[in-house]
Write a structure and sequence with these properties.
heterodimer; A: Alpha-Beta Plaits; 16% strand
Chain lengths: 178, 495
């Protein structure tokens, strides 16, 4: 059974979609989005989006890497099997630093990429928009505004009228075939 | 359409002083879809004859490399030209050479991103791919040079049969972590950049697949849709996603920058932490990093100049891009030349006779030919790029880039071999020469490198399309080509 998922409007230029996004944001929609082939500069402000929170994932990844690296070397070379080499101390933060530093970066990088996937709720391979033929051009050169039917402010006639007022190239209803 | 666009640009330019007008990064005012067609066209189309020939040759060369590695493992390191005291021969030279090559990719993808150098967008994908393949080639050598390769796992933090852990005071172990982190983070960064472009290929395949109903073409199309779609992770170009994506990209660039500087510093610690005259110097970390970027840009140009010509990408990877890369080569090549001079100066000024002897022996001893090959390739050839003609003639840049590759390999040869062949005990002084196995294993790694690179050209977009589109005026909502209303009344008339 298929049910309506969202109403989509297609535009040709980034300036057009900026203008359209301003109007949709002003109309108070919540469950809506702008889809573009590349990040359009300034769109976050127009959509009223706050700063992305990825940094926390990077930070905790990095802290974990640094701690794990230092503790690993401390355990291996000082606690579990201590061998004196060249009269040097069994553990020192200096000689442990290069390895702990690399592990900071390694886990920080995993945190950043993983954080991006988690915050974006990806991977999501089955998405109603991915079944739409016109929408396929979003990864080429077209720009889309998508307003979900689940939005509390959604009203089929009113939303369509709002989008028509933004001079789109095309307006279409996307169904969720389940 | 293109005429109207051209007039608009002219109209805008008349209001900007000539010297402030920026050359566009994609020439001839191409529309956004042209970039997609041009780049995805390579993946969708049939490969030309030269690709097939090059692939067969590279593949056979790679197989030769694997064959010689098999011979080495089954026979022992005696098949190499190593002797006492030159126990580090071509394996370490090749390792440092390949790992250095990789550094240009990370510099382009991370450091130039942080510095907001928009021209990087046309070349970063290829350069990052080169990084990954170069690190794969590099990673082979430490693995096989240990002699008893079945004990290579002792490098990793796993206790051996006696419960003994690796010894973390050794820079060789730091190297294990540096190189494996470098490989992993480069791969993550590269993959992340690929996600939007894989989605482009996925969407084009889906539309093309609508026309097919059954048969082999349909099956291939379905399989490709699945494969590209799987790795595209369901990307829809949502701005809410782009927001997180761009932040994560910035953070990865921020992490890769100290990483790339640390990797070759740690590689240089392999030498600098020892007490061999000629190795035990504090200049090594910065000198190695500059040399790595220098050699990497040489290799980027060696690969990119034929690629842009053969696939007609001259309007995306323009002569200006090549020129800017040549400028990076002047900068890093001059740092390398300065480091060569400073090493000599400190060897004299430091007053240590053994150090001074090591350097005199480098330039005028039995390996003088290697030293002067290195100097002429690395110090003289980059200085040619002070002349604009040299920076803007692709065939000439290509030749110089080959010299840089040769010179930087010789630099590592000079460092490793000349320092070791005259060690503390004059009775063991000798002359080191490689064997056939040494030489052909190294040649074989080029087969591996080029095989991977050719596969990359065949199956993945060689230009980061979403980024290249993002730096065109057509993508700027405040530019007239991006649909903005003309600012200047005259321009309005022209429109």
């Amino acid at each position: 059974m298929s049910q309506p998922y969202a109403i989509i409007a297609e535009y040709d230029t980034p300036a057009d979609i900026m203008a359209a996004a301003k109007k949709v944001h002003a109309a108070g929609y919540k469950k809506w989005d702008v889809h573009t082939p590349f990040p359009v500069h300034g769109m976050d402000d127009v959509m009223g989006l706050k700063n992305a929170q990825i940094g926390w994932f990077t930070f905790f990844g990095g802290i974990t890497g640094l701690t794990a690296g230092m503790l690993m070397i401390y355990f291996m070379n000082k606690v579990d099997y201590d061998i004196v080499v060249g009269g040097k101390p069994l553990f020192s933060g200096f000689y442990a630093f290069p390895v702990a530093y690399e592990m900071t970066i390694l886990l920080g990088a995993f945190g950043s990429l993983g954080g991006m996937f988690i915050l974006n709720r990806l991977p999501r391979h089955h998405h109603p928009l991915l079944a739409n033929d016109r929408f396929a051009a979003v990864t080429d050169d077209k720009f889309f505004v998508v307003i979900e039917c689940a939005d509390p402010a959604y009203d089929e006639a009113a939303t369509r009228a709002l989008l028509e007022g933004t001079d789109p190239q095309h307006i279409e209803m996307v169904e969720d075939a389940q | 359409m293109s005429d109207a666009a051209g007039q608009t640009v002219q109209a805008v330019e008349t209001h900007t002083p000539k010297e402030l007008v920026r050359q566009p990064l994609v020439l001839n005012n191409r529309p956004l879809s042209w970039i997609t067609d041009q780049v995805v066209g390579i993946v969708e189309g049939k490969m030309p004859v030269w690709w097939n020939v090059a692939f067969v040759v590279s593949f056979l060369t790679m197989m030769m490399c694997f064959g010689y590695i098999g011979y080495l493992i089954t026979t022992g390191v005696g098949v190499w030209g190593l002797n006492h005291p030159v126990a580090w021969g071509w394996a370490i030279v090749n390792f440092v050479f390949w790992i250095g090559i990789g550094h240009a990719g990370t510099l382009i993808s991370a450091i130039l991103f942080l510095l907001r150098q928009k021209w990087r967008c046309s070349i970063n994908r290829t350069a990052e791919a080169m990084t990954i393949f170069a690190v794969i080639c590099a990673g082979i050598f430490p693995g096989i040079h240990v002699g008893r390769i079945w004990l290579a796992w002792w490098l990793f933090p796993i206790p051996n049969a006696h419960g003994i852990w690796p010894q973390f005071r050794s820079p060789l172990l730091w190297d294990v972590f540096a190189v494996s982190t470098y490989f992993t983070v480069s791969l993550l960064f590269w993959y992340m950049g690929l996600i939007p472009d894989l989605a482009t290929i996925r969407d084009r395949l889906r539309i093309a697949g609508k026309k097919l109903n059954s048969g082999l073409d349909w099956m291939i199309n379905r399989f490709k849709q699945f494969a590209y779609g799987f790795f595209a992770m369901g990307w829809t170009g949502s701005n809410r996603h782009w927001r997180n994506y761009e932040k994560a990209y910035l953070l990865l660039a921020g992490l890769s920058t100290p990483l790339v500087l640390s990797v070759h510093s740690i590689v240089s610690f392999d030498f600098a932490v020892s007490q061999v005259p000629g190795w035990h110097t504090t200049i090594f970390p910065p000198y190695f990093v500059a040399g790595a970027v220098f050699s990497g840009f040489g290799m980027v140009l060696t690969l990119m100049i034929p690629m842009r010509a053969l696939f007609k990408l001259e309007e995306i990877i323009t002569v200006r891009h090549l020129e800017l890369m040549c400028k990076v080569i002047i900068a890093t090549g001059s740092i390398v030349g300065y480091a060569y001079g400073m090493e000599f100066f400190i060897a004299w000024y430091g007053g240590n006779p053994y150090e001074l002897y090591a350097f005199k022996n480098r330039a005028f001893g039995p390996y003088w030919w290697a030293y002067w090959t290195m100097i002429s390739c690395n110090v003289i050839s980059p200085q040619l790029f002070w002349f604009q003609w040299c920076r803007t003639s692709p065939w000439f840049i290509f030749i110089v880039s080959i010299f840089i590759n040769i010179g930087m390999w010789f630099e590592r040869f000079v460092i490793v071999v000349t320092s070791l062949h005259r060690d503390y005990l004059p009775s063991s002084w000798g002359y080191y020469s490689p064997t056939r196995v040494d030489i052909l294993t190294f040649v074989g790694t080029f087969g591996l490198f080029l095989t991977l690179f050719l596969l990359f050209i065949r199956y993945l977009p060689v230009i980061a399309m979403s980024e290249a589109k993002g730096v065109t005026p057509q993508s700027d909502p405040h530019h007239e080509l991006g649909g903005a209303k003309p600012i200047h009344p005259e321009a309005e008339g022209a429109n």
